[in-house]
């Protein structure tokens, strides 16, 4: 809901440097159900942020909020600018920096007008128009508010009608301002198979920057998702937390600056690194969106808001179905043929999955893809391995009773490939330099429309020839080394136009194939962001599928991404029993990457039953609200539960994460999210064949009040390393 009002307070004086609201100031309140972002526009049309936090019940009181939180002097009037322009009076990190057509390196941005309108059911779009008083240069700020989910999506467009080109040096998506006593940033970092390690650090005066310059596979070291807790370190159910994430699959920069007034400034957007953008007169540049949610009740609420928003508004079929699958990557690597594969289809059927996913290694003839050194780009079936082609495999799988899906890495090229031989100018590489390879491969130049057509054609041809193909795993294993395009007239547009080119291809594919399930993979979790997740039904969090490691990885992704989109496969990584690995994989979209024929009788029986159980309970895991109960970082166990919207069903997972003597869930764990007035029964799921559970007495009921006040001990310990419980309303 948006409210604009002018206020006439009894203030005697006003200047641009004064923090208080003054007569004639206007306030633009950008609100969701619980949150408000309030912009103040003064008499000189300077737009500043005066509030980001809980929505006030009396909107007229936004005018009482002191600007800059009244801590002292702002020498510029810009510390809390809605979009800090560089070059004139700014002293801090800008949101935008430009050089005008006449060489003037400064920008001033004043409020022109704003409007708000409905952008769908429960969605409001507020648009704030700003312009430079001296130059025909405009910035428009967009704030899309998702009312029920408390999520704000923010981006900007930049346009001018100067006589010649303008250079954009920096062009952020969002600029926020948050006053508090202290700030604790949780950011995530890692590498291949070590994704999403959290670090919580206090922010002190000055800048802290999260960024990537990797181009593709951009999140390999650091994803564009973070938490900022105000006043105290982030807690699960208490305290103020802002969860933010940039919807962009390329280079990004998120800068946190504690200013001289000890307020937090935040600038998030495309990384200005090597990305000066030449904007022609009359053209518009649109930044990617920055998404955030503010919670006054800890990071648990923030996660649930993002999950609900993502399922409803972002991820394709976020409220729909997903297919369980058997993947052959770890079962065969590159070593397979038709016979082996058709046997695996039967294994998949026996196991009880919906789909078989053929991974890397099925293509290339002149340079067969028998290892990771050749063949990328030559997307024709290898005639030795697959003499009857993909159509035959699709039919074979379907006649076995499961669907067939396939792995692709369409953005990449092997130096040993026919594609490279035919189109060397389609490859990102530098003149006069040796080629550097990441996983023995190079990146195609997606800023080139011809390359975009080629990449689109890979999927389109495949779908045209095999219309019942049921799934695509879209991989991306290399970062951008040798960042140079032979055909792009603006070399410094490459990083930006690569991602735009990728999105153009994906847009076209989604128009033609709106329902095709697609997995976003990037050598593990090198590309997990809500820019790409506009197109993909699910993502691959990590190649690390060790059950224990995976608890931590999934735990951290769960801050931002919902279970329905999180692909978890049971594999042979790790030393844990299959029950443990299956229980862990069930906390999301379940799949397998094992040799089914090597399972012993009990393991197979367990897996078959687990898949049936999953079919019965998946709706609660996928669409329910996630409550993290016990963190693996602070005790012997990790515990979390998904609760249905009606609060009549919950699936509760607990794992032993410590190997110390007598480690375990020593005491009851308090549940969350239930209805205190309802009564529930508790029953154990995924009980291993030949063992008995003591939690199977469905005649005993517990009130939600009891379970959330006293709790229940799932008795996870060295003998019961993972426990899955179903909590059901007793009617
Ligand atoms: C990296 C992916 O993360 C793996 O799952 C697998 O598909 C390999 N690439 C294949 O090369």
From TrEMBL:
GO terms for biological process: carbohydrate catabolic process. PROSITE patterns: ALPHA_GALACTOSIDASE. Keywords: Glycosidase, Hydrolase, Signal. InterPro entries: Aldolase_TIM, Alpga-gal_N_sf, Alpha-glycosidase_related, GH, Glyco_hydro_27/36_CS, Glyco_hydro_36, Glyco_hydro_36_C, Glyco_hydro_36_N. It catalyses: Hydrolysis of terminal, non-reducing alpha-D-galactose residues in alpha-D-galactosides, including galactose oligosaccharides, galactomannans and galactolipids. Residues 1-21 form the signal peptide. Pfam families: Glyco_hydro_36C (PF16874), Glyco_hydro_36N (PF16875), Melibiase (PF02065). Its EC number is 3.2.1.22. Substrate binds at residues 192, 359-360, 439, 473-477, 521, 543. Residues 46-280 form the Glycosyl hydrolase family 36 N-terminal domain. The active site is at residues 475, 543. Gene3D superfamilies: Aldolase class I, alpha-galactosidase from lactobacil brevis, Golgi alpha-mannosidase II. GO terms for molecular function: alpha-galactosidase activity. PANTHER family: ALPHA-GALACTOSIDASE C-RELATED (PTHR43053:SF3), GLYCOSIDASE FAMILY 31 (PTHR43053). Belongs to the glycosyl hydrolase. This is Alpha-galactosidase. It comes from Fibrisoma limi BUZ 3.
């Amino acid at each position: 809901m948006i409210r604009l009002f002018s206020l006439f307070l009894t203030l005697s004086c006003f200047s641009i440097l004064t923090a208080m609201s003054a007569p004639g100031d206007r306030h633009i309140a950008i609100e969701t159900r619980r949150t408000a972002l309030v912009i103040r526009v003064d008499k000189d049309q300077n737009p500043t942020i005066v509030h980001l936090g809980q929505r006030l019940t009396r909107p007229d009181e936004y005018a009482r909020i002191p600007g800059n939180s009244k801590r002292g002097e702002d020498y510029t009037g810009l510390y809390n600018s809605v979009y800090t322009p560089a070059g004139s009076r700014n002293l801090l990190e800008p949101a935008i920096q430009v050089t005008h057509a006449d060489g003037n390196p400064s920008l001033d941005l004043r409020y022109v007008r704003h409007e708000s309108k409905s952008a769908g059911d429960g969605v409001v779009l507020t648009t704030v128009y700003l312009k430079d008083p001296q130059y025909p240069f405009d910035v428009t700020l967009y704030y899309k508010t998702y009312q029920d989910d408390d999520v704000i999506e923010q981006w900007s467009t930049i346009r001018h009608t100067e006589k010649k080109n303008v250079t954009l040096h920096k062009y952020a998506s969002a600029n926020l301002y948050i006053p508090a006593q202290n700030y604790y940033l949780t950011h995530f970092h890692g590498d291949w198979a070590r994704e999403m390690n959290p670090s919580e650090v206090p922010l002190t005066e000055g800048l802290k920057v999260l960024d990537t310059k990797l181009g593709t596979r951009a999140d390999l070291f650091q994803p564009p998702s973070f938490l900022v807790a105000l006043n105290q370190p982030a807690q699960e159910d208490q305290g103020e937390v802002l969860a933010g994430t940039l919807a962009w699959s390329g280079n990004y920069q998120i800068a946190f600056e504690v200013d001289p007034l000890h307020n937090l400034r935040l600038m998030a957007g495309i990384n200005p690194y090597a990305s000066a953008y030449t904007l022609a007169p009359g053209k518009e540049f649109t930044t990617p969106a920055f998404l955030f949610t503010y919670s006054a009740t800890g990071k648990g609420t923030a996660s649930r808001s993002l999950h609900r928003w993502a399922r409803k508004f972002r991820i394709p079929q976020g409220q729909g179905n997903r297919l369980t699958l058997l993947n052959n990557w770890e079962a065969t690597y590159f070593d397979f043929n038709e016979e082996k594969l058709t046997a695996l289809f039967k294994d998949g059927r026996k196991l009880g999955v919906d789909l078989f996913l053929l991974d890397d290694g099925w293509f290339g003839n002149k340079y067969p893809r028998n290892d990771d050194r050749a063949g990328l780009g030559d997307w024709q079936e290898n005639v030795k391995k697959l003499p009857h082609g993909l159509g035959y495999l699709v039919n074979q799988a379907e006649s076995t009773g499961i669907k067939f899906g396939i792995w692709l890495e369409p953005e990449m090229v092997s130096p040993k490939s026919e594609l490279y031989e035919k189109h060397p100018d389609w490859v990102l590489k530098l003149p006069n330099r040796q080629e550097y390879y990441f996983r023995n491969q190079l990146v195609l130049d997606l800023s080139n429309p011809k390359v975009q057509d080629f990449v689109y054609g890979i999927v389109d041809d495949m779908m045209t020839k095999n219309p019942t193909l049921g799934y695509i795993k879209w991989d991306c294993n290399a970062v951008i080394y040798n960042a140079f395009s032979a055909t792009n007239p603006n070399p410094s547009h490459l990083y930006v136009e690569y991602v735009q080119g990728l999105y153009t291809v994906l847009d076209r594919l989604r128009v033609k194939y709106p329902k095709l399930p697609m997995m976003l993979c990037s050598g593990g979790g090198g590309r997990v962001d809500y820019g790409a997740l506009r197109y993909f039904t699910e993502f691959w969090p990590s190649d690390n599928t060790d059950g224990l490691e995976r608890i931590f990885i999934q735990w951290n992704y769960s801050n931002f991404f919902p279970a329905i989109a999180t692909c978890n496969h049971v594999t042979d990584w790790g030393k844990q029993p299959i029950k443990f690995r299956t229980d862990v994989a069930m906390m999301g979209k379940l799949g397998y990457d094992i040799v089914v024929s090597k399972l012993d009788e009990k393991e197979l029986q367990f897996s078959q039953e687990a898949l049936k159980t999953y079919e019965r309970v998946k709706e609660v895991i996928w669409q329910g609200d996630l409550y993290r109960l016990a963190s693996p970082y602070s005790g012997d166990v990790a515990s979390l539960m998904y609760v249905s919207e009606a609060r009549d069903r919950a699936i509760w997972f607990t794992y032993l994460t410590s190997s110390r003597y007598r480690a375990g869930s020593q005491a009851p764990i308090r549940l969350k999210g239930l209805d205190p007035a309802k009564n529930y029964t508790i029953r154990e799921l995924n009980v291993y064949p030949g063992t008995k559970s003591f939690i199977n007495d469905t005649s005993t009921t517990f009130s939600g009040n009891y379970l959330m006040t006293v709790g229940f001990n799932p008795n996870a310990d060295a003998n019961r390393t993972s426990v899955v419980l179903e909590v059901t309303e007793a009617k």
